[in-house]
Amino acid sequence: MNKTTAQALGEAIRAARRAEGLSQETLAALGGISERTLRDIETGRGSPSLRAVIAVSAVLGLTVRACP
Can you give the pTM of this predicted structure? Predict the structure, then answer.
C-alpha cells in the first residue's frame, strides 16, 4: 500500500520534531495550533489547514512545496 502525501508529510514532521527533542505539546504551542491538530498532521488524518502545516513546518525549519 502506498502512503498518501498527507501520511508522508506527517511522518516527516514527526521525525523532525523528535530529532529536535520537542514534545507535541511544545511544537503545537510554538506553531500556534492545538495538540489535536498536530496529531492530525502527524498521522495524516483529519483536515488540518495549510496554514497549520506551514506553521509547524516553519518552526522545524522545513519547507512545504506544492507540486502539480
Answer: 0.88
